[in-house]
Amino acid sequence: KTEYDINLYFFLPNNLGINKYNYSNSQFFEDLYGYVRLITPKSSLQNLTERIENIINFMNLKKQNIDTHFGYINYELKITICSYRAYLRDFAKKIKKNHYGDEDISDLIKEIHVFRKKIKELPTFTENTDSQSLKDLLMFTDEYSSLLTVMYMFRIYDFLSKSEAKINAQILNMINNEIEYRKRRGMSYASEDDSKNEELIYKYSVFKKYFYNILFLFQKRREDAVEFRHFLYAIAAGIAMIFATTVAFLSQKKYGNFTLSFFVALVISYMFKDRIKDLFRQIFENKLFFRKVFDFRNKIYDPERYNLFGFYKERVRFISKKQIPEKILQTRLQKADSSLSTWYTGEDIMKYEKKIKLNNRKIIKSFNDKIEGLNDIIRFNVNHFTRKMDDPSVFLHTLENGMKKLTASKVYHVNLVIEFKSEEEYSSYKVRLILTKDGIKRIEIPEYDIVLTNS
Question: No. of H helices and E strands in the chain?
Fold first, then answer.
């Protein structure tokens, strides 16, 4: 099994007005979106071509009952296309870093030509099936791989020096041939027509989800410890009932039945019974349930075959400075500018915890390819953080070359410490979000001197 924890510590300046009294757990989880995806299996382009050739040979043998083998064909084609995209992406990164030779690019062009030639045979098998799902799969594989080829070859062309005329001519020739093929097949392609470009971008997004759903893991969310919560509520109701019943017995013994005093005592006991029940519910929530229990317990599935791969729990809490581990505090103060840092002027601290358990054997058994690991992706919307901010820009004046009026950004710093823990390793690093009322202006990672600008 694989078990690991991810903790996110949000250090929020007091002037943002985000605290436990006005930013609830439900609001946080509305702003948070996370998903888990298996890392795309890596393979050479020659191996991917052989894989497509094997699928074609298989479908030729099973022409009479091709529909019954949809599961196998679906898996093979989707994994192959995902690996093809990863191969082109990694090759483009090498080009950007100048880690290439002319022969590498020439070989790439030749291998893509062979790969695409095999892929173009797939739509012919639509005549052998009545399954619309299989027909779509075969057609989409051809169209998406063509789109990926054009997109990444343009990217490679942009990264290359313009002086490499021979290589550039080969790339442009390949792109042009692919675009002509798309036109003949009635596929979308980039043009001066905005509506067609809109359709192209939409298709790319849909294709990406369609093929990558073989690697995405489906998450089914439910509240954690619901039964325990209702058990505590029952105890609170029982304590309140004990009080009300005791008052009723004592007042009956003292005043007798059907008296005004007995009636008044019953009304008072009922009034206090409700308040006592709510009081104990609140005590159990804050002192016991809220501290010990997670907000959600989620199941992780394979979305295509619904195999249960694991679980993860998550919760968010505002914590005090005393509750921050020493390692996290050291990371937070790493390269802090000065005593003007918001840490010294006042911050509210919010901690998001995520604990994951995965069954490796089930994951490996469900995939024919070697799975190296997974990407745990978290997206967070900072709009709640920006609501009470001042205008995004202010005016300044200078006397350089005469008096001038300047515009400067009004920014807020939100520091985020990300902590990763497993049995084998531990790591943490700091991210500084530079925010304005319009959103994220830039992101700084002080440890590595990285600055990401929102352009």
Answer: 14, 13
